[in-house]
């Protein structure tokens, strides 16, 4: 019962959805029709981006209301969310995950490391940015990107 | 006529029921939620995607989603939801319904084994544990109700409950209702037995079996799972709260009224289930047999009570 009181007292914590320019949809994502399943791949991230992804799907930003959802298998996914520079150990794993996603498939490079290796550029264990391994359709800059930026990028995929 | 209406209602309404339950959970968790239509949007998109069969899988993997969806559609046609009369009345009694549901589960478990991945096999073995404990409980708890009527035909059981509404609050009926509610939760993979929205492979039961399915196959499985949920919830309401169901040769108006009533009842039950999930955590896997054995015991007591207290 104390949980029930807590629920009643807290009410809705999701922030109102920010305004969005209509028609601003990624052409490759147009046929998904308001439903985008995402598979997150950590290719060697420092887990800063992971914390931001967790808050994007938390109650405050609630990306699920725009039709985006994290799934447990690349077979269920429409898009891969790749974080971190691609390390040598994760290169083959990332390539295989990409091949496991059914067409049409998209790749989002999330964070500066995924875009251009960021702070890890030139490190001995790093193969290169995500675009060296798999084709990238969308990039989200930031180290780590703010949840608002991630939500805006996801809404370009879902179109909602 | 009633059967056609039932199948259409279950086929179209089930994803909406799942969407409604997710919406209830989202609101209670302080989120905005994706809307009731989101499962249909997901299904529409999955159907358009490329079907993938992993290397080394055979016809078992490809046939499993079709068998799962097919069996649920047959069950939706014979179970009394809108009308107690069904064109398959003679062949489809309690045993046929339970066997059809089990056939779908076994087909999906075999499909999961066919992928020969670690998680597929693990999910299949867990599903079989749950199934082995759930099926006898379903049979026994409906037995407890069929003793009174003297037949295992579900339509006849529901018709007698409509004629004698006070019988619903007998000890046998209440025990059977509790047992059937627990196995419905287990069979449809809801909290506290299984978490339908989990991402942790090690805690999965149903989700682990479908990890390798993609595109239209996955759409079929998700649609069938939603239909199983609404059929079992509908069966629960028909057996223990049969008010409004159309009996005998009911006219079109009675059927429509019964459809509206059953939608309202199933939606209410689904909302209650979703709200209950917010207050509960998933049980540890080794505690699940204890829960299901408890529900089996209640079903056994219900059968005993219906014999000795009748």
Automatic annotation (TrEMBL), chain A:
Compositional bias (Basic residues): 1-11
Q: Which domain of life is it from?
A: Bacteria
Q: Per its Swiss-Prot or TrEMBL entry, what cofactor is needed?
A: [4Fe-4S] cluster
Q: Residue ranges of region Disordered?
A: 1-22
Q: Which UniProt keywords apply?
A: 4Fe-4S, Iron, Iron-sulfur, Metal-binding
GO MF annotations in UniProt:
4 iron, 4 sulfur cluster binding; metal ion binding
Fetch the InterPro entries from UniProt. Answer: Complex_I_20kDa-like, NADH_UbQ_OxRdtase-like_20kDa
Alphabetized Pfam families for the sequence: Oxidored_q6
SUPFAM superfamilies from the UniProt entry? HydA/Nqo6-like
Which residue ranges does the record assign to the NADH:ubiquinone oxidoreductase-like 20kDa subunit domain? 46-157
NCBIfam families given for it? PRK06411.1
Q: Which family does it belong to?
A: Belongs to the complex I 20 kDa subunit family.
Record-given protein name: Oxidoreductase
Which organism is this protein's natural source? Acrocarpospora macrocephala
From TrEMBL, chain B:
Q: Which residues does UniProt assign to the signal peptide? A: none
Does the entry feature the keyword Cell wall biogenesis/degradation, yes or no?
A: no
UniProt entry tagged with the keyword Transmembrane helix: yes
**InterPro entries referenced in this protein's UniProt entry, alphabetically:** ComplexI_Subunit1 (IPR052561), NADH_UbQ_OxRdtase_su1/FPO (IPR001694)
Q: Which UniProt keywords apply?
A: Lyase, Membrane, Transmembrane, Transmembrane helix
Per the record, membrane topology reads: Multi-pass membrane protein
Please name the GO terms that the record assigns under molecular function: lyase activity
| GO CC annotation terms, alphabetical | plasma membrane
> Where exactly are the transmembrane stretches of this chain?
6-24, 59-82, 94-116, 128-147, 167-186, 229-246, 252-279, 291-309
Question: What are the subcellular locations of this protein?
Answer: Membrane
Chief location of this protein within or outside the cell: membrane
Q: Which PANTHER family match?
A: FORMATE HYDROGENLYASE SUBUNIT 4, FORMATE HYDROGENLYASE SUBUNIT 4-RELATED
What is this protein's name? Formate hydrogenlyase HycD
Organism annotation: Acrocarpospora macrocephala
Instruction: Give the lineage.
Output: Bacteria, Bacillati, Actinomycetota, Actinomycetes, Streptosporangiales
């Amino acid at each position: 019962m104390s949980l029930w009181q807590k629920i009643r007292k807290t009410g809705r914590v999701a922030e109102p959805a920010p305004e969005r320019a209509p028609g601003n949809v990624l052409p490759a994502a147009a046929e998904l029709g308001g439903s985008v399943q995402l598979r997150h791949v950590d290719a060697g991230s420092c887990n800063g981006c992971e914390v931001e992804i967790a808050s994007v799907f938390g109650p405050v930003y609630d990306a699920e209301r725009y039709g985006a959802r994290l799934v447990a298998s690349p077979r269920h996914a429409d898009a891969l969310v790749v974080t971190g520079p691609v390390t040598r150990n994760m290169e083959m794993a990332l390539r295989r995950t990409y091949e496991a996603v059914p067409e049409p498939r998209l790749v989002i490079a999330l964070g500066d490391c995924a875009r251009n290796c960021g702070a890890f550029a030139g490190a001995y264990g790093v193969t290169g940015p995500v675009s060296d391994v798999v084709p990238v359709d969308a990039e989200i800059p930031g180290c780590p990107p703010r949840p608002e930026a991630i939500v805006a990028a996801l809404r370009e995929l879902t179109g909602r | 006529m009633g059967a056609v209406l039932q199948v259409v209602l279950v086929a179209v309404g089930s994803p909406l029921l799942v969407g409604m339950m997710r919406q209830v959970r989202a609101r209670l968790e302080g989120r905005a939620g994706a809307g009731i239509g989101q499962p249909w949007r997901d299904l529409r998109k999955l159907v358009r995607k490329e079907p993938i069969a992993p290397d080394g899988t055979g016809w078992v993997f490809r046939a499993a989603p079709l068998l799962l969806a097919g069996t649920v559609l047959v069950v939706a046609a014979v179970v009394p939801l809108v009308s107690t009369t069904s064109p398959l009345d003679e062949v489809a009694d309690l045993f046929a319904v339970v066997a059809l549901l089990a056939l779908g589960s076994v087909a999906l478990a075999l499909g999961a084994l066919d992928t020969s991945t670690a998680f597929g096999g693990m999910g299949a073995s867990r599903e079989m544990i749950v199934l082995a404990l759930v099926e006898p409980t379903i049979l026994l708890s409906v037995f407890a109700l069929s003793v009174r009527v003297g037949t295992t035909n579900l339509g006849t059981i529901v018709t007698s409950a409509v004629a004698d509404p006070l019988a619903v609050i007998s000890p046998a009926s209440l025990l059977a209702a509790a047992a059937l509610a627990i196995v419905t939760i287990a069979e449809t993979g809801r909290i506290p037995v299984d978490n339908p929205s989990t991402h942790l492979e090690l805690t999965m039961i149903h989700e682990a079996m479908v990890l390798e399915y993609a595109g239209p196959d996955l759409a079929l499985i998700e649609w069938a799972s939603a239909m199983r949920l609404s059929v079992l919830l509908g069966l629960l309401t028909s057996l223990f709260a049969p008010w409004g169901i159309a009996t005998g040769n009911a006219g079109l108006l009675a059927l429509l009224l019964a459809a509206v009533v059953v939608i309202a009842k199933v939606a209410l039950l689904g909302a209650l289930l979703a709200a209950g999930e917010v207050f509960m955590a998933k049980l540890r896997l080794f505690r699940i047999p204890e829960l299901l054995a408890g529900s089996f015991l209640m079903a056994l007591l219900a059968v005993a009570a219906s014999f000795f207290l009748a």
